[in-house]
Amino acid sequence: MSHAKIVNGVINRFMRRLIVKHWLRVGYATSFAVYFLSLLLTVIDRSFSLRWAVLSLHLSAVVLAASLYFVSRFHPRPLRALFQKKEIIPFVTVLVITLILNFSYIKDLSFVSLGDEVRDGGLYAAQILGGSIKQLYAYGRYEAHGLIIPILVTPFYYLFGPNVYSFRVPAALLASFDVLFVYLILRLLTNRISAVVGALVLASLPLHLFFARSQVVIAFSMFWTSALLLYLIKFFKKRTLGEYVMLGLALGFISSFHVSVRVVVCCIFAYVCMIDILNRFSKKRISVPILYRYGVLIAYFLVGFGPQVFITSFNLFLHT
Q1: Is residue 272 one of the residues assigned to a domain?
Q2: Mean pLDDT of 84-93
Q3: By 3-state DSSP, what share of the chain in percent is helix, strand and coil, each rounded to 5?
Q4: Are 242 and 73 spatial neighbours (Cβ–Cβ below 8 Å)?
Q5: pTM attached to this predicted model
Q6: 288 SS3 class
Q7: What's the CA gap between 132 and 81, in Å, rounded?
Q8: 132 domain-assigned
Q9: Weakest mean pLDDT among 85-89, 130-134, 284-288, 299-303
């Protein structure tokens, strides 16, 4: 190969990366602008008549930023490895078993539905669809979780109506994904046998089975905790600026759910800070890049958290 071809190849790769970085920055800036517009509408809309527009703008900002991250990080090689026969068989086995466990007799077990699950997954969803709850970024009972949970459950209430399926089906789906996330975590850290055994032990635990068919609020907490731990494995492999965008976005969005998952959010944030500070001291580098990264992380934490920031004090965030 001639030197000219090598030089042209290097230049082409450099230009492609430059263009991708440029459009990523434009996309991330656009997502932040959409989020800012949702805040502006929240301030203006005192009667909550634009509540669905505010929600759409906020979720659009979150989806746009997350999509940009995943598209920029997409590589077909891990997917090809996942769909090999030796990998797909244990994965599908875990999936089928956990779906059977979580959906079998879902209407009859666990017996009588308690007040919390009926209120959080059913009543609130009905009130949101009916329009009696207008402030979509308020908190639920005891100010322990945001109304994002019943908002995400509303499609199931619309489908099933005033029935236990409206909150048990989403809880079962979330618990099933939780088991799959645990399988992937163990598969990345150990081997296939350990991953299968660990995932099936979790799926068969009585408490996990109970939450999988009752408490959709807790099911969301289980789902997000496992998803965060799975993402952290990727985060610590290569901590680029995009990783801090995604981490901030995830931590902020997850914080709008139940207060129990905020404990996980705070622990992860503290752990990431500690690792970064120790790395900077050991390498004796200046602190400007790390301050810039954490500025981006905090900015996208706010994007993920959304307009709920207007009614959330520090004590309310920690539920103290």
Answers
A1: no
A2: 86
A3: 80, 0, 20
A4: yes
A5: 0.86
A6: helix
A7: 49
A8: yes
A9: 284-288
